[in-house]
Design a protein that fits this description.
By secondary structure, the protein is mostly helical. It has five helices and two strands, in the order H-E-H-E-H-H-H. The chain has a domain at 3-26 and 59-110: Cytochrome Bc1 Complex, Chain D, domain 2 (Orthogonal Bundle), CATH 1.10.760.10. The protein is 32% helix and 3% strand. The structure holds heme C.
C-alpha cells in the first residue's frame, strides 16, 4: 500500500469502520446515509416501520473502486461523491487518503485474471 493509502486506512478506522466493519467491510446492519425519499423507502418498504424510512444495508467495500455507480440507487457517479455524501466531516486530504485506501481494497489483478473468468462457451451437457 502507498503511504497515502496507509493514511487512509487510519482515517477509515476512525470514521468509517463502525459501519464498514470486519473483513467484509460491513456490519450487516441498516443505516440512513442519503436524505430520506418517500419514493425509495429502504427497509421501511419491508417492515412498514417509520424508524426504518431511508435505511439501507451497509454494503461491502471489497473491489469498491470497480463497482460504480455507487449507493443503492446509483446516484453517486464517482467514488469521491459516494464518500463525501456520507454525513461525516472530512477535510480534502482525508478524502484523498480514503480514496487511495478504497483503491487499495480493489484487486484488479484478481478481477482481470482469465483463470477466474466465465468459460467462453457453455459447458457440454451429458
Ligand atoms: C453510519 C454507518 C456508515 C458509516 C459511518 C460509513 N458508511 Fe459508507 N455506507 C453506509 C451505508 C448504509 C451505505 C449504503 C447507502 C445507500 O446505498 O443508500 C454506504 C455506502 C458506501 C459506499 C458506496 C458503496 C457501493 O457499493 O455503492 C462507499 C464507497 C462508502 N460507503 C464508503 C464509506 C467511507 C469511506 C466511510 C468513512 C468516511 C463510510 N462509508 C462511513 C454506511 C456507513
Amino acid at each position: 500500500m502507498s503511504s497515502e493509502a496507509k493514511a487512509g486506512k487510519a482515517v477509515f478506522g476512525r470514521v468509517c469502520a463502525s459501519c464498514h466493519a470486519g473483513p467484509q467491510f460491513t456490519d450487516g446492519r441498516f443505516h440512513t446515509i442519503l436524505p430520506v425519499n418517500a419514493a425509495d423507502r429502504g427497509l421501511a418498504e419491508v417492515t412498514g416501520k417509520a424508524e426504518d424510512e431511508g435505511r439501507f444495508r451497509t454494503p461491502t467495500l471489497r473491489n469498491v473502486a470497480a463497482t460504480g455507480p455507487w449507493f443503492h440507487d446509483g446516484s453517486a457517479r464517482t467514488l469521491r461523491q459516494a464518500v463525501t455524501r456520507h454525513p461525516v466531516t472530512l477535510d480534502a486530504s482525508e478524502t484523498d487518503q480514503l480514496l487511495a485506501y478504497l483503491e487499495a481494497l480493489t484487486d484488479r489483478g484478481f478481477m482481470e485474471n482469465s483463470a477466474f473468468a466465465y468459460p467462453d462457451r457453455p459447458c457440454a451437457k451429458d
